Amino acid sequence: MAEEKEDIPLFETKTAKGRALYKLFCSITLVGIVLIWVYRLLHIPGAGERGRFAWLGMFFAEVLFGLYWILTQAARWRVVYRYPFKDRLFNRHTDNFPKVDIFVCTADPTLEPPSLVINTVLSVMSYNYPPDKLGVYLSDDGCSELTFYALIEASEFSKHWIPFCKKHKIEPRAPEIYFARNNNFSHESDFAREWTSIKNMYEDMKSRIDTVRANGCVPKEIKDKHKGFLEWDSGITKQDHQSIVQILIDRSNTKAVDVDGNKLPMLVYLSREKKPGWAHNFKAGSMNALIRVSSEISNAPIILNLDCDMYSNDPDAINDALCFFLDEKRGRQISYVQYPQRFSNVTKNDVYANAARATFQIELAGIDGFGGALYIGTGCFHRRESLSGKYNENRGLIGAKELEMAAKPLADCSYEKDTLWGKEVCLNHSY
Any keyword Membrane (predicted)? Predict the structure, then answer.
């Protein structure tokens, strides 16, 4: 019976509906384009005739637009959609889910406010996934003590937010978005009182973070409460600073629990070293540093990377991705699972196509029909071994202090010198 269950796939692939009609439409359009080209060729004005150059210019433009249209149909010719089966995943893998490391990248506390960043962090810390198998890393390329302070605040708030999310199965799990959308319920209920308490707690935290950001520095009385602020001194700048690795929530610590006594996900702050004269390689360099540092601390076989302004709107996103990675027949052929982006602040009719629906719902799915969607830089689950080679278990380091010291050299700007990092290992620096 167990063998029969393993033969059942964890996901299926379906071709989009209406493709025959679309291909007929494409064929008719192609005939029209060719006829226009033929007409232009047969009726080119002779030398010296009026309008000859305008005619040739129009013909050249129509050839370019026609070729562009033909090329774009490659991304729309075979549109497929993937459907995971989480119930089969849970029946087959009850206790042996893999660890997952989540990377959130930010670079500037002015352009990317810390209160926005921690909403993304809190949304992934609240995933419906065993917290002892979840590690969240915030990469701060701006090396801002303001962002570090916001992450400390988020680590405390998560002790209340995560159990609230899981108890009431709320969505989305970015508190700013959730509280803005959901307030239509009876204010006399127990849920309403808990909702109000958590909302007030969140607004107080956000107010403290925004006040510190407006002042441009963290008050001394706050700095004295956390040893991590010792990393910042008067000589630190965005482009010149040492590596900083701080484990804010250590899952090996028995005291790292929420208000209900459940384990919390690991939470790590990283700011890789930057020095004048050393290329930092932008986001690719940040991702490579995250891969190295996380391999020393948690070394999960699955990695999710997110931009700091892209909160997760599905608490089961990890389970959906695992349906592809853990499928017995095709799972080993899959190196990454790309999720489409969704936007919550576009207008109802989206007349300027800010949500890029054609790209995410049709074209990426069409490219997937020919062997796999493109990596778009965020919302993507990777196998660690597909990025940095053969996966090995972690090295057995236990204490947070020991892990921090071991991880710091891996984030140094000179680490990649004369190596294949950024060329053949991990993300290419042209990204």
Answer: yes
- Taking only Cα atoms into account, the Rg of the chain, rounded to an integer number of angstroms, comes to 26
CB atoms within 10 A of CB 206: 20
* 307 labeled binding residue: yes
What is the mean predicted confidence (pLDDT) over 158-167? 97
Q: Where are the domains of the chain?
A: 17-78, 98-411
Q: Which residues contact 249 (CB under 8 A, 6 or more apart)?
A: 155, 158, 256, 264, 265, 266, 267
- How far is Cα of residue 424 from the mean position of the Cα atoms in its chain? 22
Judge whether 283 is annotated as a binding position. yes
Whether residue 273 is annotated as binding a ligand: the answer is no
Distance CA 124, CA 176 (A): 14
Structure confidence by residue, pLDDT tens digits, 206-260: 999 999 999 999 999 999 999 999 999 877 888 888 999 999 999 888 889 999 9
Contact assessment for residue 387 and residue 291, using Cβ atoms and an 8 Å cutoff = yes
Give the model's pLDDT for residue 395: 57
Helix (H, G, I), strand (E, B) or coil at 251: coil
List of residues 6+ apart from 397 with CB closer than 8 A: 296, 403, 406
In whole angstroms, give the CA distance from residue 431 to residue 282. Answer: 8
Count of C-beta atoms within a 10 Å radius of residue 43: 9
Length of the chain measured in residues = 431
Listed residue (71, 147, 69, 67) closest to 106, CA to CA: 147
Average pLDDT of the chain, as a whole number: 89
Whether residue 373 contacts residue 364, with contact meaning beta carbons closer than 8 Å, is answered with yes
| pTM for this entry | 0.90
Q: DSSP string spanning 279-290?
A: ---HHHHHHHHH
409 token code pair: 């050299």
State the Cα torsion 272-284-140-118 to the nearest 10°. -150
For the residues of 60-123, what is the DSSP string, one character each?
A: HHHHHHHHHHHHHGGGTSS-EEEEE-HHHHHHH-SS-PPPEEEEEEE--TTTS-HHHHHHHHHH
